[in-house]
Each structure stands twice: as structure tokens, then as C-alpha cells.
Amino acid sequence: MSSPFGxxxxxxxxxxxxxxxxxxxxxxxxxxxELSTAEWLDVLEQARALGVLQVHFSGGEPLLRxxxxxxxxxxxxxxxxxxxxxxxxxFSRRRAEELIGAGLGHVQISVxxxxxxxxxxxxxxxxxxxxxxxxxxxxxxxxxxxxxFVLHRHNIDRxxxxxxxxxxxxADRIELANTQxxxxxxxxxxxxxxxxxxxxxxxxxxxxxxxxxxxxxVYVLPDYYENYPKPCMGGWASRQLTVAPDGEALPCPxxxxxxxxxxxxxxxxxxxxxxxxxxxxxxxxxGWMPEPCRxxxxxxxxHGGCRCQAFQxxxxxxxxDPVCVLSPDHHLVAEAVATAxxxxxxxxxxxxxxxxxxxxxxxxDAQ
Length: 367
Ligand code: SF4
Ligand code: FES
Description:
The structure is a single chain. By secondary structure, the chain is α/β, with parallel strands linked by helices. The protein is about 35% helix and about 15% strand. The protein has a 10-stranded mixed β-sheet. The model has no long low-confidence stretch (mean pLDDT about 90). Keywords: 4Fe-4S, Iron, Iron-sulfur, Metal-binding, Oxidoreductase, PQQ biosynthesis, S-adenosyl-L-methionine. This is PqqA peptide cyclase. It comes from Saccharopolyspora griseoalba. It is an enzyme of class 1 (oxidoreductase).
């Protein structure tokens, strides 16, 4: 058991986009008030004391928090490497200079497709041109730029165009992540899951691009099409922790759906939560594993897969991830894949605006 390496600081669930693949919780009204600036500053200090080296400021849209520069500055003073995960909306020149001047080293911008028409349709709002402008600002001001494309049935055929776009913007890193089916994405799973032929074509495109592109190219396969699950979060509560907007501390962003006792930073120290809390200890190591994981040679490789996916598909977070071909529940995944390859695609249902009122939101900058 070791200290966490990364903190995902989810500053707000508010967001100007309406992505059909959003993984944030569905029941935002059930969550408490956002942490104040002072509470976040304290979380950063506690995280550093616990051993965290990287902080990912995320959301929702973290640029909506008017105190973001203060949090970025404090993180840098503490020696934390700061990464901003953003839609790019609200990344004005003033804001960009302020944040990068405060020590922000890395900006990850999500783009939904390769043209304004396609990207704006998937984002549910006009945003493409502002994303390009934000990417250009990151490069101009000398921070590292990652472009993140979440892939699914409705954009994966445009991968060549997305790579060309990322290259043109000078991205240092390109992340091609197939959709994970949590939150709103779960509702859209049938509509989002790509067909096998689409994936084959995408893999060919990625292979060819790797040979010629200088940017780091990360391609995350959809695990529904794999034989074995992903080693989710690098193992439960082993490297990363998430603090949600209301201060709930979680081993992964989707863990709030699990039937486990939850503790927030308003109730206990981050150190206690990491080392002692029931949620963080629930699936650490291999002692919790059922068969077939318990006696499997891969149990230290994939850690039995994803607990949230196991819960989503079977109702029991302690079962083997059904993505695994050895799981007694694998038919649940096989059936979804069969449907994606047999039936005509369903329409995507965009996420309603997940905006929430908060005294910390900077509404002007998000317009
Ligand atoms: Fe991984 Fe468990 Fe499947 Fe083995 S049985 S490959 S440990 S999920
Ligand atoms: Fe929660 Fe995989 S997303 S363990």
C-alpha cells in the first residue's frame, strides 16, 4: 500500500456543454454545496502532505470557478504539477495568462470532433472555434497541450480528421479515449458503442499515425471489445484519489455510485480517508477478490478490472468485471457488443445542462 500520486480535484459539476458521453453523476441535486476556496486550499495542502505530486483541476468545467488561479498558484507553491482539464470555454487570454503565470504546466482540452459542425453538434453548444483559440493560447504561452477526443460510434469514423486537427494545433499529446459507460454515458450506451468494423478502421488509422506523428499518441481501446478488463485507476485506491465538488473523497470519479460508506474532507482528514476509510479499503489489494480472479495469474495485472463497471452491470461491485472473458457475467458485455453490431444505431440523448448555482462560479468567463 502506497501514497497516492495524483489528485483529481473536481471543482464543480457545472458545465456549459451537453455531451451525451458525460460520466458525471446523474443526480447532481443530491450533492452538497461546493467546497469553498479555503476548503480547496486545505485539500491541496493535505494532498501534498500525503505524497501527491500531480493535481488535475477538473469538473464539469473548472474554469467556471473564479478562484481557480488561487488554487493553481497554491498547488504550484506546494510543488504540485498542475493540469487543467477543460472544454476550453472560458480560457480567455486574460484567464490563460493568469493561470499559466500562476504555475499551470499542462492544459488538456476536450474536442468532440474535427469540424465545427460535427464538434458543436456533439457538444450541444457552439464551442469548436473557442476550443481552437484556447489550444493556440496554451501553445503561445508555453504550457504543454493535450487534446482529448472521446471516441464513440458518432465520431470515430472522423479519426483521421481529428488527428490532422491536433497536429495542426501543435498538440504535444493526443488522447483518443473510447467512451467509458458511467453517468449519462450509461444511458446512451447502445447509441455510443462503436461497431467492430469502425474499431478496426480506427486501429489502422492510429497505427499509421504513430509512425509519422511527433506528438505522443495515447489510444485507449474500448474494453467491451477486449478479452480482459483494464487495470482501472491502476488498482483500487493505489495511486489516485478524487475529491468531488462537495468534498466527497473517492478512489475514482464514478465510485459515488457504489453502495459503500462515503467520507468527505469536511468530516475527516485526507490521510485518514486514504489509509483507513471503508471506501478506500474495500477493494485494495487482492484479498477481496472472488473466483475466478482469486486464483488467476492476471490478478496483479488488471486487479480484477473496474469495480464501478462490475456494479453497473451486475449490481455487485465485488464481482469480477464482466468485460473479462473468464467472468460468469461476461454475457452481459457480449450481448451489448452483439446489439451494437446488429441493430441500427440509436440517437444520442444530449445531457441537460448540468449547471449548478455556486457562489464560486465565474459566469462571465464561461460565456
Ligand atoms: Fe483479470 Fe479476474 Fe479476469 Fe483474471 S479473472 S483476467 S484477474 S478480471
Ligand atoms: Fe471506478 Fe473503475 S471507474 S473502479
